[in-house]
Amino acid sequence: MLTITELxxxxxxxxxxxxxxxxxxxxxxxxxxxxxxPAGSYHTRSIQLKSNMVLHxxxxxxxxFTDDIENYEVISMEFEGIAGSMYKPLIFASGEENVSVxxxxxxxxxxxxxxxxxxxxxxxxxxFVCFDHCKHVRLEGITLENSPVWTVHPIYSEDxxxxxxxxxxxxxxxxxxxxxxxxxRNVRISDCIIDVGDDCIAIKSGTEDTPDKQPCENITITNCxxxxxxxxxxxxxxxxxxxxxxxxxxxxxxxxxxxIRLKTRRQRGGxxxxxxxxxxxxxxxxxxxxxxxxxYCGARGKxxxxxDKAPYPLDETTPAMKNVIISNIMVTEATAAAGFMYGLAxxxxxxxMMSNCSIRMAAEGEAHKPAMMDGIxxxxxxxxxxxxxxxxxxxxxxxxxxxxxxxxxxDTVDIVIL
Length: 418
Fold this sequence. Notes:
Layout: E1 2-3, H1 17-29, E2 33-37, E3 40-44, E4 47-48, E5 53-57, E6 61-65, E7 74-79, E8 82-87, E9 91-94, E10 97-103, E11 106-108, H2 112-116, E12 129-132, E13 135-140, E14 143-145, E15 152-155, E16 158-163, E17 166-168, E18 185-190, E19 193-196, E20 199-203, E21 216-222, E22 225-228, E23 231-236, E24 243-254, E25 258-263, E26 271-283, E27 287-292, H3 304-307, E28 320-334, E29 337-342, E30 349-361, E31 382-387, E32 389-400, E33 407-408, E34 413-417
Parallel strand pairs: 1-2, 2-5, 3-6, 4-9, 5-10, 6-11, 9-12, 10-13, 11-14, 12-15, 13-16, 14-17, 16-18, 17-19, 18-21, 19-22, 20-23, 21-24, 22-24, 23-25, 24-26, 25-27, 26-28, 27-29, 28-30, 29-31, 30-32, 31-33, 32-34
Antiparallel strand pairs: 7-8
């Protein structure tokens, strides 16, 4: 173990960047070890960890990342499935094994300047914590605040544990997702509290433009609290490599725009499949369940193939959304709609089973579009809105306080209500 304060000689003008770099080099030379950070405040830029290494922050320790953008290293890194230049993540490991960040300390990303100047920056804002092409990584106990962009981003990684982490980014901070597993396998997220300016957890696997499409699979999320944010757990819209084998259980979503949200569009290809959502409480969400295959945000999102409701030929670029079990969900004070499913004309949302769910609509509230797609009007107090969906079953699903019919469907919908 190496205590960072042993390297005070490398600190210049209260900047600990060189001290952390020296600590990594020394431990790497001996095959690994622990960088121990005692209570105190440490100003630094990016810290890049190596294999068999633990960065441990004691209670009372604060890593206070500087916002001197001009001095940050620039690397090539994917963002939303596309490689480009990015400022190096604040905590970073690439191609490493057995890397951990642990402890009861805090990290402040000081994202305010990054957010304010984001449109004028020559490179993309940095992730806060990023494991790129890594194996056997752990993030545990740490508090992360004010991330420049996505907060925790495991990409092309395997065997990832994220436990007991607290994430807090302001509601108006742009693209500050909480945890975004991307093209990764065997990811376990548990006992986290996430309160952010975008999606709390978003599961991704690249777009049609990603050269190395890999699935994001075997993902478990349990015992987490999602506060505010655009979505509780969101899957897509980058899902061209497929997202499959996902379980989400024993969570609370409070005042998230949407609860469980799956989104994609034509030309993305891939499948979202084999998912279980169980034992979840949602309070004051806009729309608790969204399955949207006409999602229009992002590059080329306004092109005809994205919004056209006519059927297209099926091929390898046609996405699929299927095999989902939703059970034991309690929703209170939902505002826009009880749920929204809209499949493609040529590829319906398929095999969605919902049971033992209670959904109470708010008597009043601002009208919103439950899903981001063309052709949908704002809703307030609506029931389930279903189009292009087959193999849908509702068993003991109670919808209370909906204005109009509890289930709004047409002849493109095949549903069994028990």
